[in-house]
């Protein structure tokens, strides 16, 4: 290569480069204009048959044709990187020169028919490939080494210019995108502001009043205005009928009556019923063609679009809001969002109104109850003030909550205010034994409460004596509707005078009983002598009469003995001869003594004594008296064919004796009364048997004097079980 050729090539390169920048610089802000100017430069200075400039899409890895001249129908708009000559140059960054395209299978068919030689040069800025430029000439071997160097240099200038234009285009695209985003955000902020303003207005409407009709109508008007509709309605579900009721409407020719108008729509019927059933928002664009639109045929065609929103709270649908528009395809997602937000506020308003109604009704009921309670309390206080007996009411902890004036009169010496004091303050002037008796009575009424089988509570009474005064305290638990204890009522009565009368009566009974005992003994003795033949042989009639006399004398003697026992027990003069006693010996002995009487009545007697049995400390004669009394009751009140079961066994720190029969049984209402003096159950079999009604009262007192406990379990018509437990000798 001569120096002249080199200089000429450098001059051409300089000229082309200068022209490139002269043409491109004014248009760097417009990529398309830059491409047009570059095409013109190649066309004017390089004697080409065709020209095609490809830019590389880095993400898609394809070349895209962006500028061409005389390329012909064979050039491709896109070429994958690595395919054909252009794709390979884009991949490797190395130019390719093809002397004769007709002899190169890769180039054949990719260029115009006039092209014979092809030169593909990469467009690169540093290591970055921006694209390729595809050049052709009409003669084979048309691109010399000097041409390759020149075009490579020009390609570098083109790549630089394209780099500037591409960066500017990307920057402008980013600016436009930012502007679009800012504009979109502005629209969203404006829409959010409008939505917030709308919801604020809705909230203002709802909080201005608790009148539901007014709230619904105003809110519906706001929603309709915001969505640009002229016809809308709100229906609420009537829980009693299951139907929807029009409570607010817009665009109706006739105003709704007060309280709304019931519709025929229910769950699953009509558009509103569908929303009620599925709890979903729905947009209908062709209303008359939708099977859910169930309305009067005369009204069809008036509206083409509908928006239905459920009014739901915590999964329960309270009603439906319907919005209509005469244009088809009117409603969109934005409308759903706005209407749903309003529906949520409407639901809150409905809930608050219902809550307000319930609170108002509850307040009215509570006010009425308070007035009634005050009236009852006033009446109760008047009754308490008029009662001669003292009344003390305590809470569950035993603290006094109410007393009447009679307490100070009954419990002499009690002048202080007792409200708020413990119950023991009432009985301060009594002995410790008396106070213990009150505490024991409190325990008994508590046990009644814990006895779930007991249908009714009965008062527990104790008599408290001090000096010359005797007070009877009757205690009873107070319970609420749930049978939970709320406290105790104690009625105090001064029974000093009654006690004196009772004592005088007992004294008379004791005197009479003692006076009768001597003649009864004489009568019984002489009767026995006569029956034994001491006065000679007796006729059968005489023997019968004397037997009747003896039987009645025995009955009268038993009555006298019972009366004396009762008077001694009440006077506290019963003296027990306590000795170590083995019930395993006593019980079989007593059972044997009554075996003949049991057999005569057609009954069976079974005795079961667990051995070894602990020793008790008791009065032998009194325990025999108890056993005889209980056994005689068992066989006297058990019909023939029945049985009596006697069992003795240890139970904790006691020995338990049980006498069970299959007799007539005792009704629940009589079970406590049978331990009262002179009480006898109203039954034909009981009436046939002679008795005083004192036996069980004496038995109970004797067992309690031993420190034991007596109780009864019975079912009418199925028999009774009398049980008593005596403490062990080591426990006394």
Keyword list:
Beta-Lactamase, alpha+beta, 6-stranded antiparallel β-sheet, 732 residues, 5 domains
Would you kindly provide a written description of the structure presented here, covering whatever features stand out?
By secondary structure, the chain is of the alpha+beta class. It folds into five domains: 3-175, Beta-Lactamase (2-Layer Sandwich); 209-359, 2-Layer Sandwich (Beta-Lactamase); 387-494, Beta-Lactamase (2-Layer Sandwich); 500-570, Helix Hairpins; 576-731, Histidine kinase-like ATPase, C-terminal domain (Heat Shock Protein 90). The chain contains 17 helices and 24 strands. The strands form five sheets. Strands 3-2-1-6-5-4 form a six-stranded antiparallel sheet, with helices on both faces. A hairpin with a 5-residue loop joins strand 16 and strand 17 (485-494). Helix 1 runs antiparallel to helix 2 (31-45). The radius of gyration is 59 Å and the shape is elongated. It starts with a helix and ends in a 5-residue tail after the last strand. Residues 1-7 and 452-456 have low confidence and may be disordered.
Concise structural overview:
This protein is an alpha+beta fold and 732 residues long.
SSE blueprint:
Elements: H1 3-24, H2 31-45, E1 50-57, E2 62-69, E3 78-80, H3 84-92, E4 96-98, E5 117-125, E6 128-137, H4 145-207, H5 212-227, E7 231-237, E8 243-250, E9 261-266, H6 270-278, E10 282-284, E11 305-313, E12 316-325, H7 333-386, E13 390-394, E14 400-403, H8 406-410, H9 432-450, E15 460-466, E16 469-479, E17 485-494, H10 496-531, H11 540-571, E18 578-581, H12 583-593, H13 595-600, E19 604-609, E20 616-619, H14 620-636, E21 643-651, E22 654-661, H15 668-671, H16 684-688, H17 695-705, E23 709-715, E24 719-727
Parallel strand pairs: 19-21
Antiparallel strand pairs: 1-2, 1-6, 2-3, 4-5, 5-6, 7-8, 7-12, 8-9, 10-11, 11-12, 13-14, 13-17, 15-16, 16-17, 18-20, 21-22, 22-24, 23-24
Helix pairs in contact: 1-2, 1-4, 2-4, 4-5, 4-7, 5-7, 10-11, 11-17, 12-14, 14-17
């Amino acid at each position: 290569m001569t120096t002249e050729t080199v200089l000429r090539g450098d001059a051409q390169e300089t000229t082309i480069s200068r022209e490139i920048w002269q043409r491109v610089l004014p248009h760097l802000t417009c990529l398309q204009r830059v491409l047009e100017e570059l095409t013109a430069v190649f066309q004017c200075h390089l004697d080409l048959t065709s020209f095609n400039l490809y830019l590389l899409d880095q993400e898609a890895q394809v070349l895209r044709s962006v500028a061409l001249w005389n390329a012909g129908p064979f050039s491709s708009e896109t070429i994958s990187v690595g395919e054909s000559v252009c794709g390979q140059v884009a991949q490797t960054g190395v130019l390719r020169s093809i002397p004769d395209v007709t002899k190169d299978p890769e180039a054949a068919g990719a260029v115009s028919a006039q092209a014979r030689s092809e030169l593909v040069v990469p467009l690169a800025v540093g290591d970055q490939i921006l694209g390729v430029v595809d050049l052709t000439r009409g003669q084979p071997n048309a691109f010399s080494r000097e041409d390759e160097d020149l075009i490579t240099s020009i390609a570098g200038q083109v790549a630089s210019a394209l780099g500037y234009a591409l960066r500017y285009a990307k920057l402008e695209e980013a600016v436009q995108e930012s502007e679009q985003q800012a504009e979109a955000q502005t629209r969203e902020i404006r829409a959010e502001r409008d939505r917030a303003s709308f919801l604020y207005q809705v909230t203002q409407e709802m909080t201005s009043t608790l009148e539901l009709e007014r709230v619904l109508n105003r809110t519906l008007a706001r929603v309709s205005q915001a969505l640009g509709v002229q016809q809308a309605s709100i229906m609420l579900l009537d829980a009693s009928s299951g139907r929807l009721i029009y409570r607010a409407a817009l665009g109706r020719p006739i105003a709704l009556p007060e309280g709304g108008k019931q519709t025929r729509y229910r769950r699953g019927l009509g558009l509103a019923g569908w929303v009620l059933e599925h709890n979903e928002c729905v947009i209908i664009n062709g209303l008359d063609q939708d099977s859910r639109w169930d309305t009067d045929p005369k009204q069809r065609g008036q509206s083409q679009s509908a928006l239905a929103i459920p009014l739901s709270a915590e999964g329960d649908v309270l009603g439906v809001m319907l919005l209509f528009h005469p244009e088809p395809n009117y409603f969109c997602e934005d409308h759903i969002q706005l209407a749903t937000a309003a529906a949520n506020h409407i639901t809150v308003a409905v809930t608050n109104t219902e809550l307000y109604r319930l609170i108002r009704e509850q307040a009215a009921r509570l006010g009425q109850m308070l007035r009634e309670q005050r009236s009852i309390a006033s009446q109760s206080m008047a009754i308490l003030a008029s009662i001669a007996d003292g009344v003390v009411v305590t809470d569950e902890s035993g603290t006094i909550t109410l007393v009447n004036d009679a307490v100070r009169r009954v419990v002499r010496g009690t002048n202080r205010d007792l409200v708020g004091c413990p119950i023991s303050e009432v009985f301060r002037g009594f002995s410790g034994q008396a106070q213990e008796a009150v505490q024991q009575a409190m325990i008994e009424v508590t046990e009644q409460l814990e006895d779930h089988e007991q249908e009714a509570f009965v008062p527990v009474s104790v008599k408290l004596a001090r000096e010359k005064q005797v007070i009877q305290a009757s205690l009873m638990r107070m319970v609420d509707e749930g049978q939970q204890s709320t406290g105790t009522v104690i009625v105090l009565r001064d029974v000093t005078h009654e006690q004196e009368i009772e004592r005088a009566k007992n004294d008379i009974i004791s005197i009479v009983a003692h006076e009768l005992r001597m003649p009864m003994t004489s009568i019984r003795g002489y009767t026995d002598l006569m029956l034994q033949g001491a006065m000679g042989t007796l006729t059968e009639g005489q023997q019968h009469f004397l037997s009747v006399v003896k039987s009645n004398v025995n009955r009268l003697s038993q009555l006298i003995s019972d009366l004396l026992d009762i008077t001694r027990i009440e006077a506290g003069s019963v003296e027990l001869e306590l000795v170590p006693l083995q019930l395993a010996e006593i019980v079989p002995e007593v059972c044997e003594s009554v075996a003949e009487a049991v057999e005569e009545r057609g009954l069976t007697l079974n005795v079961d004594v667990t051995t070894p049995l602990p020793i008790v400390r008791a009065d032998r004669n009194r325990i025999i008296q108890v056993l005889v009394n209980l056994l005689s009751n068992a066989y006297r009140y058990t019909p023939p064919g029945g049985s009596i079961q006697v069992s003795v066994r240890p139970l904790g720190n006691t020995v338990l004796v049980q006498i069970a029969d299959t007799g007539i049984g005792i009704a629940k209402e009589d079970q406590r009364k049978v331990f009262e003096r002179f009480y006898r159950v109203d039954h034909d079999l009981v009436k046939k048997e002679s008795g005083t009604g004192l036996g069980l009262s004496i038995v109970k007192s004797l067992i309690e004097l031993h420190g034991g406990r007596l109780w009864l379990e019975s079912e009418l018509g199925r028999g009774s079980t009398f049980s008593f437990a005596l403490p062990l000798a080591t426990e006394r």
